Amino acid sequence: MTTTPTRTRPSASRTRGGIGESVGRPDGVPKVKGEFEYSSDLHVEGMLWGATLRSPHPHANIRSIYTSDAEAMAGVFAVLTHEDVPGRKVYGMEIPDQPVLAWEKVRYQGEAVALVAADHPETARLALGKIRVDYEVLEPVTDAETAMSEDAPKLHLSGNELRRVDVRHGDPEAAAEVVVEGEYEVGMQDQAFLGPESGLAIPDGEGGVDLYISTQWLHVDQDQVAESLDLPPEMVRLTLSGVGGAFGGREDLSMQIHACMLALHTSRPVKMVYGREESFHGHVHRHPAKMRYEHGATRDGKLTYVKANLIFDGGAYASSSNAVCLNAATFACGPYDVPNARIESHMLYTNNPPCGAMRGFGAVQVCFAHEAQMDKLAEKLGMDPVDLRLKNAIEPGMKFPFGQEVPYPAPVREILGRVREIPMPDEQEAMGRDLRELPGGVSNTTHGEGVRRGVGYAVGFKNIGFSAGFDDYSTARISLSIEDGEPVVRVYTAAAEVGQGLVMVQAQIARTELGVENVVVEAADTRTGSAGSTSASRQSYVTGAAVKEACEKVRERIFELVRDEFGESDELAIEDGNIISDGREIAPLMEILDDGEISEIVEFHHRATHPLDENGQGDAHFQFAFAAHRAVVEVDVELGLVRVVEIATTQDVGKVINPKALEGQIEGGIAQGLGLALMEEIRIQDGEIQNASFTDYLIPTILDMPPVKMEILELADPEAPYGLKGVGEPPTIASTPAIVAALRNATAMELGRIPVRPEHIIGIPKKPPDELPQPESSRYSGIGRLEDRRET
Amino acid sequence: MQFLQPHSWREALEARAAHPGARPIFGGTDVMVDLNFGRKRPETVIDLTRVPEIREWNREDGLLRIGAGVTYTRAITELGNLLPGLAMASRTVGSPQIRNRGTIGGNLGSASPAGDALPPLYASHAVIEVASTRGTRRIPVGQFIIGPKRNVLEPDELIIAFIMPEAEGPQQYAKIGTRNAMVIAVCSFGLALHPESRSVGACIGSAGPTPIQPRDAENFIEDVIEEHDLWESRAEIPASALDRFGVLASEAAMPIDDVRGSADYRRHAVGVLARRTLTWAWNEHRGVAG
After folding, report:
1. ipTM of the complex as predicted
2. Of B132, B136, B144, B251, whose CB has the highest number of CB atoms within 10 Å?
3. How do residues B42-70 score in pLDDT, each as one tens digit?
4. Is B81 on the interface with A (CB under 8 A)?
5. Which CATH code is given to the segment(s) B171-286?
6. CATH number assigned to the domain covering B2-111+126-164
7. Is there a contact between A758 and B178 if contact means CB atoms under 8 Å apart?
């Protein structure tokens, strides 16, 4: 990783482990050694095992549910249905439309219908088999376009259109000298986190419950669980357990209410762990999309207009589809200066699995389309694709098509220019290489035959944090005290560490602000106020700011004590546990604090955002992050197999907080983008998932993931703590279109759908036998058919 | 569930005879997946890992007799020079952990058309030795596997070993997957040149209900080689004949559309793999790199 010093940094503090250092993960070694306790490892004596009965049908009426046989089984302690939900029978973050347990109707395959608690997981599994549900199977609505039609069955009382966002900008009749059109499709990607949904609910004996859980947002879970249990929130306490990845897939509830219901019903602790197959049914996925685009430009390559019609399959329930629909509408044109735009973004209910949050959140789908369009336009204009992008790059002070002024920094031109300058990988002779450096890898499909190289570029952007009027805040409490003769800082937040590294960021900020090396980041729980969600790349910014401000308050109180005691008037600082004034150590912190504890709590709210108006106009977002990617691929054009040779990327992060963690986010995000480009898709047929396992839902392995060259820009956002920008999502957005652009460059195929399959790359003919050499053809002559040869 | 752990082959056969529905397990890389997914819940499982006889391999009457419990890792490290095709196929199986556990006998027991070890066995005309308390019989691999996940093993029989000749010429194995490692075959192709018997063995994997030997392709290329006296001259096989070999292999495939790939793609890819593997093997026979 190279970092471009584009801003002056504060002089280095003497306190080790502050911001800017590659502080290691506290849980890194235990995770590598297999000793880390994930939520699936939780255990208490006497606990029961919960299990979920799920609908085998994507669409059916429930005539009856018969539970007596299951209840009669030895070892079964509870069998619960919708009738046993104590409070609100539905849940959902944006629109509570999803049944805790289905009644009357199921709307997707895998919908939860009944629960069992038993003394052994196998008993629970067998008991599920004894519950009899009488279904009247209905025809499922299995794609979004069908759901839009007038005669489609209404899946919800509100109709099938869950959300529509129109963005109208400039002249609707704008005409252009050069026009390109395209249709693009994105398949359903899964977050594919490795730790399945799991948790442990422990009744407190007084009607309340403690839930130890893997989640992205403790407080939104707490609110929904409490509503459905009909308890005040303070009687439902959540503690974050070891989370094995999230990527958006843990923003919605899975087994939270279920485990608590079973625990309260049986007065026993209840653990639930999904298996891998169940996990594929138990969380939301990335929205499949169909997108029709038209770009108009002048002959010299200035964009005149963009028209786009976006259709997203939201699946059976709302999840966070509303926000995805808005995001897609606002990012549909890409980070370009577009004078006229007409965007329609439609979100539909279907009987497919519910879709919701996933890394990139609406920006991923449209980036694939708008970047393909830019390439198409460049080709039609005879322009270099990067030059075309540079010519149209948006800049601070301009307006996005949704009416918001582009804030500083928005270095689209700079990241594109720089990514092009990163040295290209050497091109070695394909014949005779190590198999691992060829498409197909160790599967030995080519020794160099048919291998062609291609290069592609893409740039993408996305909002950081929650948008459109949402009060997106975080809470942090910082305490400073003396323990065993040493100053110790404790950081209390409810922010979920899901593997991304916030646990280091919080400690680094506290060390930097308080000059104390010994910082303990306490386990996240609901005793501290909400930190908001670990999503939208927002925690470093929002919880980071809360931690920073709370530290500043603590520090100010220390300085007050110093001023009172020493009458110092110079500027004070704390370094390595000592009070510094004008470069001199004047006292150790220990002396100032004595046995006292200084504690401050801060609720940080970032600048307000606003909903879009009826024309899709408004200051909807508060920060934007940009990344550009260049992909070099090699394609076996006879077999359609691909090796990504290298990804080069430039990303503006405002300020590097932890270089190693940043590198990890960028590489991981690119791996997920590569997965979407080449292999990751939940295949659905008639509403049913065909590949609910890691046998057939493929994610990239180390042999699929290329080396990444990265160049990091640090253009400080004046409103953000340390100038930082969220970093988690941008690597996932433009990496996918860059890879597909490189494939097009290598093959000259259209490739309008991702993931790209081998058969798309080679453009497999409808009936291959017709392509085989025929007796008349030149390839055939001289050899002849076998039977003929035998006869002669 | 009853878990039996015989310590000798005799005990294993007796256990199998006493529990005809029992599921034998060795590496567990298929059996445990079935158990975990709840697809199969046998009353009895017979763990064969403590049976020394099936973990060995040796030479017998000029052939190699390889115990059903030899893992993919051992096929690579111990048999790589003797059976290069099987070793190449073994390298494409799963991850190192899977290769350490999974066995070639397990591939025969599962009888999946996608079993990576199977095409090399077909291409070298392996014979499967099965046994029960009633006695022992040997069955050519092509007759042993009779359908998708179906073989001719009787309920009281166990696979003890497979027997095949040491490679007398170049061998190849190529496999299509939609990622570059740890993938189940979309389709595959195994090939073995037998210069002494002047024959070519070939087998298509994962593009039909069983592995398929493309007899027409084999016969065709054998004829071409004979006609041009290529075994001795070691001259190039004409490009048109390599193409034709691919076409005939492609025509022999009987693939279906599934979540891993389309039938059309499989048929096409089998042809490409057939042509390429024959080219590589023949180049090796000629002493030419590539």
Report:
1. 0.96
2. B144
3. 999 999 999 999 999 999 999 999 999 99
4. no
5. 3.30.390.50
6. 3.30.465.10
7. yes
